[in-house]
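User: Fold both of these, please.

Assistant: Here is the first one.
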Amino acid sequence: MIIDVFVYSDATESAPFGIASLIEAGKCARLDGIAITDRASSHRARDYMEAGRRADFLVIHGLELNTTAGRVVAYPSEIDDAYLAEDWRSLGACPEPESVLDYFHERGGIVIARDVYNRGEGLKDRVYSIRDSNGRGFDGVDTIAVYRRRIDNELSIEAQQMLGVPACAGSGVFDLLEDMGHCATLFAQQIEDQASFVEAMRAPLHWACALRDLGEACPMGSAPRPDDGEDRRDGGRRNREERHGGRRDDRRGSRRDDRREAQGRSGDHRSRSRSDDSRGERKNSGQDGARRNCRRRGRRGE
């Protein structure tokens, strides 16, 4: 299953889209589900999940919080009354990350390090040292996003690997529905509800993936997307000719020019070779004639 695990609804300040529009965008992107991760808001979680059931589309809920160290996203194992009542506000307006880990781990949830190396927002290198009271750290790291710098994605991947936790990704849909499904998380197991989602996020068999070209945000060493073939997650070959046709024509023209230049060089080389051979033959002929004349003069002298 492929799920976009970071999506914002209009419950987040300045985010314009309601749940119906986000579900429709998720279907258009051919995702299997989305996770709404509103900033400091969880009171609509049950309504959102019910909307997903009516639309036959998986909707998960999470909570994004700004801590004193940086941004995190928590996913509860169940949407209970305390979560709907936003009991987590007891942690404070800008809580310590350790207290967020304690709160959600004690209730069976998970906490993800989000936008780790974003300037002014991420946890940076503190991601390595933050632990709850039992010594347990983050349950995963958000590793790739199209809106981040390449170095930010690379450092996030390094942190995820050094911590030995799973990687995850989402498009971070905020004010452009077209961003839906740009990045997502691929799960090996079937996910049916909030509890199975949290269980799957704890397991190692899920991966961060880019479903479209990341451009300059693509981490070094990542395989480029092929230019041809149908893009399943982009609803087919949308604007493919526009996006790639010109570059292909340029490459083909460049290859033709290279072949002509190579042929020209080869022809010049053959011409020079024939000219050199001819000069060599003339030179040898002249030398042979001179030897014969010397021999004649020698015989006359004798």
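And the second sequence with its predicted structure:
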Amino acid sequence: MYSSPESFFLETERFLLRPWKSSDYPNFSRLAKNPQIMRFVNQGKPWSDKRIRSFIHKQEKLFWKEGYCRWVVEDKIKRNFVGLCGVGVFDPPGFLEIGWWIAKRFWGQGYATEAARCALEHAFRKIRVPHLKSVTNPVNKASIAVMHKIGFQQKMSGFLGDYLRSPKYLPIVTYSLDNPYLHSSPQK
């Protein structure tokens, strides 16, 4: 879909959202092994090195095949790794989900919202994704606030098992948004 991952990036006022490189492993590993970051992702359990490498590889493939992924979020000026944000497949059941992980030292500064707006705009305008969801634990008030700020509405409360995933009785909330560029009436 794109000629080169090195030449592709999305840009916000403060960040670049870009495809993954194998050199992102050390920074992402610190994020994926931090229990505070992972408490709503993996019940506080750090990811293994194998799972981290698999995630990066999956994002690289997704970018090449579909034109989107959970991008690396990088500070535009210092080029520091901030986290990740973007669209991925929530398997099972296989719907498209927007999500974000931001390094703890950047919390509370609007970084997730800024990156999510950019990734959402790309998914809706450029890729023409018809609909996106976002799933989190109902205790994760910061992510729920981001979902509201980017226009998502709550559609479901339930358990992770409702999506045939484990742990079966982990509480979740699902928010969603239709692509307004596909569903709007033509302007006169």
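The two ends are 33 Å apart (CA to CA).
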